[in-house]
Amino acid sequence: VQLQQSGAELVRAGSSVKMSCKTSGYTFTSYGINWVKQRPGQGLEWIGYINPGNGYTKYNEKFQGKTTLTVDKSSSTAYMQLRSLTSEDSALYFCARHSSPTFGQATLLHNLK
Where is the Ig-like domain (predicted)? Predict the structure, then answer.
């Protein structure tokens, strides 16, 4: 089982970014995908969850309206879009298979003021 995330992004304040999490080694539609955020020196913060089988999503209230989670079943890939970026969004972002300790390697988001 592998989750391969997109590379680091350097983005400007106010812009949007869409990062990917390509999965392999299991049936994509059988497990949900969680996204989590980690800022320097802080713990993991749950952003949201998507069920690739039926498209159901659930978001942390803090990220509601800021984040959109989607999937492409044909490529077994999950996506997370973040909008209206600020310096607070500079962080590591991980995708993780639900009910499993399997994480992606993280996408680093740098935000320019």
Answer: 1-95
| Euclidean distance between CA atoms 34 and 102, whole angstroms | 11
Q: Are 113 and 61 in contact (CB under 8 A)?
A: no
CB 24 within 8 A of CB 40: no
Phi, psi of 56 (to 5 degrees): -60, 135
Q: Which two tokens stand for residue 61?
A: 């209230």
pTM of the complete model = 0.93
Task: Give me 99's structure tokens.
Answer: 């009910």
* Sheet hosting strand 2-5, strand order edge to edge: 2-5, 17-24, 77-82, 67-72
> What are the domain boundaries of the chain?
2-104
Q: Are the beta carbons of 39 and 90 closer than 8 angstroms?
A: yes
Q: Is 62 helix (H, G, I), strand (E, B) or coil?
A: helix
Q: Convert the pLDDT of each residue in 45-88 to its tens digit.
A: 999 999 999 999 999 999 999 999 999 999 999 999 999 999 99
